[in-house]
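Review box. Two proteins, two foldings.
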Amino acid sequence: MTATAPILFPTLDAIREGGKGKVAAALSAIEASPGPAADLLDRAYEEPKGTAIGITGPPGAGKSTMINALIAGWRKAGQTVAVLAVDPSSRASGGALLGDRVRMRSDPEDNGVFIRSVAARNRLGGLADIAYPAAILLRAVYDRVIIESVGVGQSETDITSVSDTVVLCIQPASGDSLQFMKAGIAEIPDIAVVTKADIGAAATRALSDLKGALSLSHRDADVWEPECLSVSVTSGAGLSPLFDAFARHETWLHQEDRLARLRAVKARNWVETEIASEFGRKGLALAESEFFNDWNNRPFTTIRRAAAEFRVSRAAS
């Protein structure tokens, strides 16, 4: 039997200099074979260029329309933007079903904008398996990385694991804001947005309901208090305050080293989740006793070490 040739990953510098084609090829290779990409991904983790913005909310809330406005605003300000859109999966092919790139407009010649659709497949929580490593790589290349979750409802709290700032979108007259009082999703947003604000009284009521729902959510000490606002992409109303809210949250994150500490916690949580998913509770116990002793914030190398260790353990048993 002929041995399969190992996948050779480009350097982070080559990806940064190679444009959208190089970024797309690297993401495809990581999705096909994430293990050999550990060194590349750990360097990307250690050298973040930009911030990651997670956008979640029910289907039809206008997430993609708002993302178009965010892309336009940040590009006008001279910032580069990447979008990772997580879509429901096709039962036939397993691929992304909706293809958010169809709904998002960008100039194909503009190397400052990169949009990628990925399939959630069987993963719950609103994200795909590739989401975390993809977000880490994109964060090292672009100024702003937008992750749009699949939009399946009120259980998609995984968006917090890949985002520095989480935006929750709801639309007026949908009843969603009242449901959030009963759901864990009310505890995750840093910014909450009522979309389609140009429809008037219904948007005003939705904003009031949303503020009430978020006021009931539990927040620990030294945690950002979520900002609530209404936005109409059609008229442009509320867009400037939305960009201002992003700026305020980013300033808060950079105070007292909050951003670095937040990312370190999320990286370790991701490693624990991946090891527990792949190797169960025994695997996680071994990781706690062995791999986290010299953690050093290298999440992808830790996963590779865990896989190698368990292969040896299974062969010996």
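Next protein.
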Amino acid sequence: MKRSGNLRGAAFMAAAACVFAFEAMLVRAMIARGIPIEIQVMARALGQALWTLPFLATRGMAIFSTERAPLHVLRGLCSAATWGLYYWSFAYLDLATATVLSFTNVMFTTLLAQPLLGERVGFARWAGTLAGFAGVAVMLRPGAEVSLPGAVIAIAAALAWCGITLTTRRLTSTDSTPTILAWLAVVTVLLVAPFAIRAWQPLDWLDVLWLLGFTTICPAMIVLVTEALRAGEASAVTPFQYLRLIIIGALGWFIPAEVPDGWAFLGAGFILIGALIITVAEARA
């Protein structure tokens, strides 16, 4: 039974990795088409709201009942910042580099988990953190081909992503998943709307199709990850999230400008190994 659950959970997590990769490629294509980042983030926020409608239909306004509204607002702020910075990084970096730098969020989470959450951080998590930051140093060495502004933006996105992780850990101890998702939908839409209105520009029908696909498909990541962790053991299914780097890296070989240099591959290897070490250590704990 446990093995069957792990296989099902691994399938869900692998599907989530495919959606992650699909999101990255969509963002890259929409940037190339000149669709403003603010409009993309607004589409993502509206998609999140769309996926919470079934919960709202069954539970009504009671879904927003919570004693931790400020923490929900902080989580929404971290989410909006993560999406905006992550998408922006694709304007400077190739798909694989932007994706691998996003994995540094697990290193930042390790650094902040003890002082902010009181979690015990063991040797494995510290070793993974050091390996990850060593990889960043290799990728951003003097003379590196990686865009420094793009790397700074990608790492800032990872730090904001760390904020999502930490606030979620606090919220899940008191609030249900539908409540967390509903608050996220409302807060992100309200935060992003002024920026989207300011950046608005006429869109042709193909731009609208890109955005519709983005809006409806990408929020599925949260559902797939949740179901993966529900079906199988975290230590067995969580590492499958890193398949998205393999998918993106493989697709990048077909786009000449998307192939990183050898040093970037080496640094990416350190970051990926560090992230895997931390992920497995946390899941087993």
